[in-house]
Amino acid sequence: xxxxxxxxxxxxxxxxxxxxxxxxxxxRRATGPEALAxxxxxxxxxxxxxxxxxxxxxxxxxxxxxxxxFTNKVIQDMKRDGFGEVRTVTGAMQDVFRQRARWDHRTVxxxxxxxxxxxxxxxxxxxxxxxxGAKLVLVGDDRQLASAYLHGGLFGALREHHGDVVSELSEIxxxxxxxxxxxxxxxxxxxxxxxxxxxxxxxFDRQGxxxxxxxxxxxxxxxxxxxxxxxxxQPQARRFAFTHTNADAKAVNQALREVHRARxxxxxxxxxxxxxxxxxxxxxxxxxxxxxxxxxADRQAGLANGVVGTIRLIEGMNLTIALDARKExxxxxxxxxxxxxxxxxxxxxxxxxxxxxxxxxxGATVDISYRLHGGSEGAATSYVGASxxxxxxxxxxxxxxxxxxxxxxxxxxGLDGLTEAQRQQAEKAFARWAPAHPxxxxxxxxxxxxxFVQGQWTKDKARDNDLNQLARxxxxxxxxxxxxxxxxxxxxxxxxxxxxxPSAPSEPPSRYSPAFRRVVDAFDLMHRRTVRQAAADMRAAxxxxxxxxxxxxxxxxxxxxxxxxxxxxxxxxxxxxxxxPGVDDNARQTGYNAKPSHDPKPRPGGIDP
Length: 609
Fold this sequence. Notes:
Blueprint lengths: L2 H10 L8 H10 L5 E6 L5 H14 L3 E6 L2 H9 L5 E3 H9 L9 E5 L7 H14 L2 E6 L13 H8 L4 E4 L12 H12 L3 H10 L3 E4 L2 H18 L5 E5 L2 H17 L7 E5 L2 E5 L4 E4 L6 H6 L6 E8 L2 E6 L8 E6 L12 E3 L2 E3 H4 L4 E7 L6 H7 L3 E10 H5 L16 H14 L4 H18 L3 H16 L39 H31 L6 H15 L44
Parallel strand pairs: 1-5, 1-6, 2-3, 2-4, 4-5, 7-18, 8-16, 8-17, 17-18
Antiparallel strand pairs: 9-10, 11-12, 11-15, 12-13, 13-14
Helix pairs in contact: 1-3, 2-3, 5-6, 6-19, 8-9, 9-18, 10-11, 16-17, 19-20
């Protein structure tokens, strides 16, 4: 049976259950002859399900499939999904750069949550795959959270400019059929993905999923009350509270822990020296890891940032926790010693795990989610935070956060009850209204106008105003991502081309077309321009830095080293270390060893279509 027939047979065996048409199309395109395939899937559309089919298809042919992602938590999820070899992108690139790992034309690289990669990591991965002739499958959603550490957005840029390699998944599977208004919730997911938050909020509001409070403290209290009611009614349901800030997560964790304590679900308290300071934990406590273990074996065992579990045993400084698993799987037990000596296997990067930030929750699915609106999040955070549930989502918002002191129309006490800012708003509204009603305006004046309008402020109008303000905050555009600010450009011609690699007669020609190489080279040029601009900004700031030998000198030296190692010319000069200020070697980032080829001739590599 040919390679192509083998892949089709894998999908048609039926072992993956009912396959939707768009998933089948994504599978066919991702297992095609192209070197690069992208699957852009909305939240809850079955991206992991489709990835499992692609992985098994290539493994059935004897290919080496490597699962990659930005976070260790996603790596753990991929391992549970059946990936035999998994690595973080950073770790994998270091292995390739240091020649501890080799990729070739029989290697398939599958990247989950690819939109979270920084431009530097994405570019390095593209170049390394091109250099090795490996198949690269990028899976993600550019409307969800991007890189939190460096400039990101390259996934979205590639999707926008190279739609011929992109498969779209938009049919929501996460919401169960028996969930309240399942069809409406699925439409809400689609609406949020497209930026129509008001439409989604109307759906959630009709189901009673939105609870309003006057203050943020009252909103947190309402969340704890709802959590307690759900815990009594559905004790076995998986639940988690999502916040925007760590401060909110800490406050919500304390409130929800008290709910468990009041129900006798926790054992005696033990003070443990965690990273945030001495904190009390008990058997039965939910915990979330806030960092990853130093040793690779410990990370692979489950000590990875974002992982959630339940404490089963506390003996002195020794903890045994049961890591969360799927409902059909038994929990995995993991033991470690609490302490700061990570090289000796100790670990102390964890906190209470009843609540956490949305960023750590990307990719997670729970039965019931609780979302505390903070007021400062953007569209990506709002979308991810409101799409983690399979059954019910409770959104808690405070009017002081959503509309500040409140609209002047909804206040009481007439003109005298308004703040100065509200009075100015009322005056502007009166100035717009008065020319159309001159007699009434002259008779009533501003005072009568404000009293009349406030008397017409009904509950429905107040509700509409609150939802409009909430939708506006939730749909706030996210900070511009570096890659999307640039259009791909044609790179300058190379002054010299490296010799062509010899072709093995048994290997097929490369699937990396000249067009693909131009994409890599163009984004390489774009990334270098971004780096140069950052270096120029730092040089300008360094001129104003009065502290000799301060942080700007070190940063300036870092960027000078970076640019001298990676100029546009194909033969970069070596840096003159002797003339540069001292730089911490641990802080210096090195480039990737894989270089894009300018050779017009095809090179060997690639898996047969």
